[in-house]
Amino acid sequence: MTLLELLKLMRKHLKLVIVLPIVCALATAAVSWLVLPNTYTASVSMYVLTKASDNGNTITNSDLSASQMLTNDVATLIKSDRVMADAASELNMDSLSGYEIDVTSSTTSRVLSISVTGKSPQSVAVVANQLAKTTDSVAQEAMNLESVSVIDEATEPTSPSGPPRVMYTAVAFLAGLFLAVAIIVLLDMLNTRVRNAEEIEELLGVPVVGRIPVIKG
């Protein structure tokens, strides 16, 4: 099937091409805005520092290099079972399974960022700050770090961060459009009627020498 033939089929079934994507988009929008709850995200930034030399309060280049190398280790430590369990225990919670926790770091920076996403704007800020405190204490104990200092504490978000309702609606519209095209192509494949002289010539291998018009009435 050529592109021109597909466009002709879509024009023939124009109602399906228009209605199905709109229905899919409206259904998804209704679910997104009426059923899915708002989610909120709070972030805390931390700075990793270790002193590899005994120079009093002076931080040398080797100190900075060691700190950068340990940053990725701290990022992994944040999501460890011990840090999660200790943070939950400090907050008198059974676990942090109800929260989505994301840790970002850079190989050229000693700054880490913990983002906590949940359904309550108050709780996500509390959980993020507690994770930072727990990471600091566990890192000093397990990795012999000088500190994992908090740069910016997490604050209570004033607006929801998700779900991405507009994106869901747009994806549903495109999915409805692709589904409409798939249905049109399938119907055309299942239609075995001979619709024009060219198909007769292709099927029988003989030329068409004449046509009898349909006389209405």
Describe the model.
Helices cover 53% and strands 14% of the residues. It is of the alpha+beta class and 217 residues long. Strands 2-3-1-4 form a four-stranded antiparallel β-sheet. Helix 1 crosses helix 2. The chain is elongated, with a radius of gyration of 31 Å. The chain starts with a helix and ends in a 13-residue tail after the last helix.
- Can you tell me the CATH class of the largest domain? Alpha Beta
In spatial order, strands of the major sheet run: 2-3-1-4
The coarse overall form would be elongated
Return the string of H and E elements: HHEHHEEHEHH
Please give a handful of descriptors for the protein shown.
217 residues, alpha+beta, Alpha-Beta Plaits, 4-stranded antiparallel sheet, 53% helix, 14% strand, elongated
Q: How is this structure best summarized?
A:
The chain contains 7 helices and 4 strands. It has 217 residues and is of the alpha+beta class.
List the helices and strands and how they pair.
Elements: H1 3-12, H2 14-34, E1 40-49, H3 61-78, H4 81-90, E2 100-105, E3 111-118, H5 121-143, E4 147-152, H6 165-190, H7 197-204
Antiparallel strand pairs: 1-3, 1-4, 2-3
